[in-house]
Amino acid sequence: MLNAAYNILLMLIEPTLSTLYMVAGATVFSLILGFPLGILLCVTSAGNLIPQILFNKILEKITNILRSFPFIILMIIVFPLSRFIVGTSIGTAAAIVPLSIAAMPFVARIIKSALKEVNPEIIQAAKVMGSSNRQIIFKVMLPEAYPALIAGITLTIINIIGYAAMAGSMGGGGLGDLAIRYGYQRFRLDVMIGAVLVIIIMVEFVQFLGDKMVHTIMKRRGLEIK
Amino acid sequence: MITLRNISKNYEGVQAVDDISLKIHPNTVHGIMGRSGAGKSTLVRLMSLLECPDNGEVFFNDCRVDNLKGKALRERRRQLGMVFQNFNLFLSRNVFSNVAYPLEIAGVDKRSIQNRVYELLDLVELSSKIEYPINRLSGGQKQRIAIARALAHHPKILFCDEATSALDPQTTLTILQLIKDIQNRMNLTVVMITHQMEVVKEICAFVSIIDNGKVIKNESVQNLFSFPHTGTAHELISPLRYSDVILKKQRLHLVGNTTEDILSRLAKIYHTNVNIVTGSIRSVNNKSVSNFIIELTISEGTLNTIIADLRSQKISIEVLHA
Predict the structure, then answer these.
(1) So what's the pLDDT on residue B243?
(2) Are residues B264 and B119 in the same domain?
(3) Domain containing A90 — which CATH number?
(4) B41, B76, B92: which to substitute to probe chain A, counting the most A Cβ within 10 Å?
């Protein structure tokens, strides 16, 4: 019994590391791509810092279309892109490409809505003091939106963990792959439960960390939240 | 100091500012008064270079400023300070870095920033709160910090946009006192936008009354209160509703921690005589509880304000029929 549990643990180690690798990579790249997009979506909207209505509308449309793509189909579509960037369309590194692309519009949305929450009067005050647009974005809007940004990024990472499991079944490796290969194809229910448990722990941990950070920021700002 | 020449501004079909020409003299406190929607806010947005007028020109010291763009505009904005009704402090920054912000964006070195911030916090008497988050401050303290921040880069002009409207009467007085003080000491030109005539009375030397986007009155405060001819001027200076015009003798029964202090404050803030009909102060469990019947000659509107004011200080109040 103990031996069996030990064996399952051993089996879980490598896929867990692959999943972590995929999630970390996709998080970094989706943030790199989504962050500027989110800022653009916000500041070019009507009545904001640099209103560019037509540009904003087109950007919104593209983001929405990307966001409504089913992930499985997106993965297949970007196979050639993965091959171009990573050199192969199979494996953990290759899965980071579709994961990043899938999470990018999500990140953009979250950044945009977090920035939109910033009190426009505060932005106006910064303007009167002679701030440039860049200073307003980086010294006022982003810091003011910090708690919402952290909460949003937490949500993004949790989503990516979910997608990463799916990517596993398409040759990406990791916990999703393990669960399918053993749990589904070889009727090893115990392995599947183990894999799912690890995923649940990951999600819980990320949520805990995000909540903790938001709480700390709120406390530093003199706002107590339960 | 500031000259507006025939400026107009239209917002989605509404003529918010309609051909206004106005001169604001240096080293004075100039009030801009009007009902909400009269065009005061638009006027101040034009003067503080947040908006460009559709027509007309804005001058600072004979220098045309309404057509500035980019860096020149930002440089020019740094010569003015602004204080708002809702303070608009940065919640992501503590007291120190709020006051430091204008200097930071102007590229001032760290040491000078620190010195200047200490100086400013001294001026508004809040040095002890330097590390505080903004949310831990009271309304009056927030406004003091906002004033310190507005003065950071030695502006020549300070705009106060309904700066005391969110504050209680007592705090309003102290903030006005502070502004008056600073104006004297720094030779500032202050533009006070307000709908409260107490504010105008308290610190302004000149006042312009705005109605429907036009200046309908522009003169010294002394003149205005002596001869308020124009309709809106009259309405703004005297209470607004008919029920507010009729003064009636009111008898009030107060129970609570009423001290003479509160009674004299009532007299001062509401410009009324307070007659004590009967009164006693007793000590209950080491706390003094007082029981007063006072008589005031006030309007219905003022009575309601006083009732709300006293209730907010946990004093139970009952209107007796005289």
Answers:
(1) 42
(2) no
(3) 1.10.3720.10
(4) B92
Nearest to A108 by CA among A164, A52, A59: A59
Residues from chain B contacting residue A126 (CB–CB below 8 Å): 90, 101
- Residue of chain A nearest B160, judged by CA positions: A125
Give domain status of residue A174, yes or no: yes
B48 interfaces chain A, CB cutoff of 8 Å:
yes
Minimal Cβ distance to B50: which of A127, A135, A220:
A127
Residue A74 lies in a domain: yes
Tell me what pLDDT residue B246 has.
Answer: 60
CA angle centred on A155, ends A152 and A156, rounded to 5°: 90
- For the stretch A6-60, pLDDT in tens is 888 888 888 899 999 999 999 999 999 999 999 999 999 988 889 999 999 999 9
Number of structural domains (chain B) is 2
Residue at a domain's end among B237, B270, B295: B237
Q: Residue B274 sits in which domain range?
A: 243-320
Instruction: Provide the CATH number for the domain around residue B296.
Output: 3.30.70.260
Shared domain for B227 and B150, answered yes or no, is: yes
What is the per-residue pLDDT across A63-107, written as a single tens digit (0 to 9) for each? 999 888 888 888 888 888 888 888 877 788 888 998 999 999 999
Question: Do residues A225 and A218 lie in contact, with contact meaning Cβ atoms separated by under 8 Å?
Answer: yes
Are the beta carbons of B92 and A144 separated by less than 8 Å?
yes
Q: So what's the ipTM on this one?
A: 0.85
Which value, in Å, is the radius of gyration of the alpha carbons in chain A? 21
Question: What was the pLDDT predicted at B316?
Answer: 82
Which of A150, A148, A139 has its CA nearest to residue A115? A148
**Are residue B207 and residue B271 in the same domain, yes or no?**
no
Report which secondary-structure segment, H or E, holds A20: helix A2-43
* Percent helix, percent strand, percent coil in chain B, to nearest 5: 40, 30, 30
B204 and B68, same structural domain? yes
Q: How confident is the model at residue B67 (pLDDT cuts 50, 70, 90)?
A: confident
Residue of B216, B210, B234, B224 lying closest to B41 (CA atoms): B210
Q: Do B223 and B251 belong to one domain? A: no
Range(s) of the domain holding residue A177: 2-220
The answer to whether residues B42 and B182 belong to one domain is yes
Residue B241 — very low, low, confident or very high, per pLDDT cuts 50/70/90?
very low
